[in-house]
Amino acid sequence: MSNYYVRRTARVFATIFAVATLTFGLIRLLPGGPFTQLRAQLLRQGVPASEVDARIANLQNINPNAPLWQQYLDYMSSVAQGNFGESISLGEPVALIIAEAVPWTVFVVLVSTILMFAFGIFLGSLQAYWEGSRFDKAFSGLSIALMSIPFYVVAVISLYVFAYQWGWLPTAGTVGASVEKELSIPFLLSALEHSILPIFSYTLGGIGGQALAMRGNSIQVLGNDYVRVARLRGLADRRIATRYVARNAILPMYTGFLLLLGFRLSGTVILEQIFSYTGLGYYMFAALKANDYPLMMATFLVITVALIVGVYIADLTYSKIDPRISAGGSDEAY
Amino acid sequence: MTAEQHGTANTTTAMTTDDPIIEIRNAAVTYDGGETFVLDHVSASIERGEILGIVGESGSGKSMFADSLLDAIPDPGRLSGEILYHRDDGTTVDVLELSDDELREFRWEEVSMVFQGAMSSFNPTMKIGGHFKETLKAHDADVSAGMEFGRELLSDLYLDPERVLDSYPHELSGGMQQRALIALALILEPEVLVMDEPTAALDLLMQRSILTLLEDLQEKYDLTMVFITHDLPLVAELADRMAVMYAFQLIEVADREQLIGNSGHPYTRALLNATPDVEAPLEEMRPIEGQSPAPINVPPGCSFAPRCPLATEECRVEDPAFTRLDSGHAVACHHAEDAREEIALHFDRHEDSIPASGGDEQ
């Protein structure tokens, strides 16, 4: 058993290593190559030609004239130390930019994903209990409609209506410009106010899918003999609803929840762009536009690592919450 | 529809017992508002302390009969008629008249049930012990005393109580789950235990040992048992009295020896002849031609008539009433006397040569 945990943990690092290597390789395959572009940019900025290579080496932790393996080793060892180099477009260390951006993104993604599951599970189980009722039919239709509207459409519309037309909520940013960046009540309120629209638009569309999944799971569980036996044994309806139906219906969605957390981090590229919300996705897009390779590589790495860690946690904890699954063997979540 | 006819024909309870614990009068189950019946106006009585075996093929209404005893017909079925339960103290209740709360108490405390799929009768994410505890709590019973009794029951069933109570259902074998389920059914010391195909999913050896255990339990706790199965030889070993169901009705009720050795209904006799037996030569096995009717096309008159070698015009027109043939033996057939002569039973009529369980439909 402990052997399994060791192997599983080793695999996390192996995967991250592979991703970092791929990032390094892919960057090199980009048209024009990162260094040609960077060199031209530096020259345009008036950096003397003799200093350009030194500047590049400084920015990227890479000496462009060294052999490829040398560059690779330099890059990997600095990444391992948390040094992602310096952002070309912003002129700040990448690690600093990411450290400032990640909390906002994690906040929005975490809250919206939890809300999405909470509403989805609640509505889905109501639908299952009243299967075939008018509510069930109407809400199933609504769920499918919600699922088919992309979140960025919801985002743009809600931004237009609530922020620009009615002026109820701010149009951009993570906190108000006049608020001090410190842990205080005005700061928290302002942060909350700014996050409402991103969270709302990132949650709404997802509720439908989760509700349909929960509905299906619950109907299946409700049809099981053990629910019928539980009723005959005289158990209270509430106990059957929670301990029998909800528990067994939610279990299969647990892995999905952790995976979705990772996946939705990457969805913030569009979301944060719409709301000018300076999180991870916002900087990734900015880096893409500005050909800011160090920043691009770092954001990409962070998002991938988040996904890998999500799967890792799902794998390690699933056996704890579902007694039928024992850790190890072929029951892993991916 | 002939349902009403069936009903009136069968209300005359040919079978009454001295001290019935449950009397079923004209019980009928319909899923389409009375067009068709999956339990077609059945009347029967269950004697206190007996083991009643109910035999019938798949889809003959056996499970509906079992579910009726607890007023537990799966939705959206409707159960009508009377299910009279005679308490120890002499009072009588109609189970169908009980309020929701009374019914909740009645089930498991008075009449309990074991379902066919033990594997699916436990919550997969709860330990066996949790099932026992929550049942005791739901009935406001003393949990520690109840668990003590539960351990005793599990020991009676040759299970290691501590290990079983601390296990999740999937950690137990099918036979262990089945025995644990029987213990769970008896945790509140009910008077009556209804078992719907309790051994269907088990291998022959496990079926055997469960039967023996059930006999011991019945003696020790003075239980009344209703044992429902498609496996005629199996229940023949256990039951005091047997009833045969065909096409949603009871067609014959008699003491075990009488039903096996001297049955009066052509279907029962054909069923006995169709039972596989290792010792009997293969030529002697007789399948019953045709198949039993679906609820939507139960024939008028006797429902077995289309497959019956003795059927006459009378059988096709008039549904035979459930009538007394001998003492303690009732049959729904116009030609019961003829059947005994015309349809010979292929095995010896001695009680000790009841054919061994054939193990069909495993």
Question: Mind explaining what this structure looks like?
Answer:
Chain A: Keywords: Membrane, Transmembrane, Transmembrane helix, Transport. Chain A: Its main location: membrane. Chain A: One of its GO terms (cellular component) is plasma membrane. Chain A: InterPro entries: MetI-like, MetI-like_sf. The complex is a heterodimer of chains A (334) and B (362). Chain A is mainly alpha-helical and 334 residues long. Helices cover 76% and strands 0% of the residues of chain A. Chain A has helices at 2-29, 34-44, 49-60, 68-80, 94-129, 134-148, 151-165, 185-222, 225-232, 237-274, 280-289, 293-321. Chain B has a domain at 1-99 and 226-348: Rossmann fold. Chain B has 13 helices and 12 strands. In chain B, the strands form 2 sheets. In chain B, strands 6-7-8-3-9-10-12-11 form an 8-stranded mixed sheet, with helices on both faces. A 4-stranded antiparallel sheet of chain B has the order 2-1-4-5. The radius of gyration of chain B is 20 Å and the shape is globular. Chain B starts with a helix and ends in a 20-residue tail after the last helix. The chains are: A mainly alpha (334), B alpha/beta (362). The A-B interface holds A 224-226, 228-230, 232-236, 239, 243-244, 247-248, 251, 322-324 and B 70, 72, 74, 104-105, 107-108, 113, 115, 117, 120-126, 131, 134-135, 138-139, 168, 170, 184.
Largest interface: A-B, 20 and 25 residues
Number of helices in the DSSP assignment of chain A: 12
Radius of gyration of chain B: 20 Å
Please name the CATH architecture of the domain at 107-280 in chain A.
Answer: Orthogonal Bundle
Rounded to an integer, what's the Rg of chain A over CA atoms? 24 Å
In helices, the fraction of residues of chain A equals over 70%
Which residues of chain A sit in consecutive blocks of at least 5 with pLDDT less than 50?
329-334
Helix content bin of chain B: 25-40%
Q: Main β-sheet of chain A, in a few words?
A: none
Which spans of chain B of ≥5 residues are poorly predicted at pLDDT below 50?
1-14, 349-353, 356-362
**What oligomeric arrangement do these chains adopt?**
heterodimer
**Continuous helix count of chain B:** 13
Our estimate of the beta-strand percent of chain A is under 5%
The CATH topology of the domain at 107-280 in chain A comes to: MetI-like fold
The H-level CATH homologous superfamily of the domain at 107-280 in chain A, spelled out, is: MetI-like
